[in-house]
Amino acid sequence: AILGVTGTGKSVFTRNVIREIATVETKVIVVDFTLEHRNKLSDLQPKSMVSDNKATEIYNAIDTLDFQLAQFKNNRDTQVIAVAERTIKVNFYDAIKEYLQSDETVRLFELPDVSNSTATLEYTKWFFRALFAVAKREGNFGRKVCVVLEEAHTVIPEYNFLGVADKSASTLVNSIAQIALQGRKYGVGFVVVAQRTANVSKTVLTQCNSIIAFQQFDRTSGDFLSNHVGEDMVQALPNLKFRQGIAVGKAFKANMPLIFEVPEITEPESVAEEQCQTGEAVPG
Q1: What is the secondary structure of 120-168 as a DSSP string?
Q2: Do the Cβ atoms of 257 and 228 come closer than 8 Å?
Q3: What is the pTM of this model?
């Protein structure tokens, strides 16, 4: 877990972690609903997990499935439901398989441009179900997988922060929580990135065996982190400077919490930044 308010150096640190993980024979999937990482990680040339055509096909199948399941049970067309579910599963399975067997190190899981919030939650839920199925049945084709959940509160919100599509959001949280609880034995791990722990599912957060906490102020974050770093360290959280954090867990050699300072990280310039500096046109 990488936690901390905006402006503490969390985002640059996280992208550096992604680059480091990608060099140790691990496939990285960045769940990016902000659409920032295609540019921010342009040096890694990340592609989308699912092509636009396949994403549209999946969305249409999800709409069909939702319509059928909204009917009374005796009015549902079981054949239509079966075809829709197979379309979703096969397309996601093929996309995951193709990536895991490729030479690429980073892919982006982004949402197509749709306004239906329920459908986007269902889309994400089916993707994680497919990923877990591949992990269990195929052993990830011999590859380790790291899923980076950026802005984690939008993907795995705490139950009291669920939005209008409560049922869909709840099943998505449960799908991801299942991987968080069991994924390690199948070679799937998570990096959970969030500004406030209060907004993020504790079921998933408590599975994180290493925590890096940058500056935070809210009481909920302090209460959660006190179980990991102790009260003295929690008292230091509001006073941490830029790029300072508290680290604890299995990823670190120290067997106790420690305060550290992130070295200056010089990121490769994104394509857009290079074009701006050279006066070239930037698409969009």
Answers
A1: HHHHHHHHHHHHHHHHHHHGGGG-EEEEEETTGGGTSB-GGG--S-HHH
A2: yes
A3: 0.87
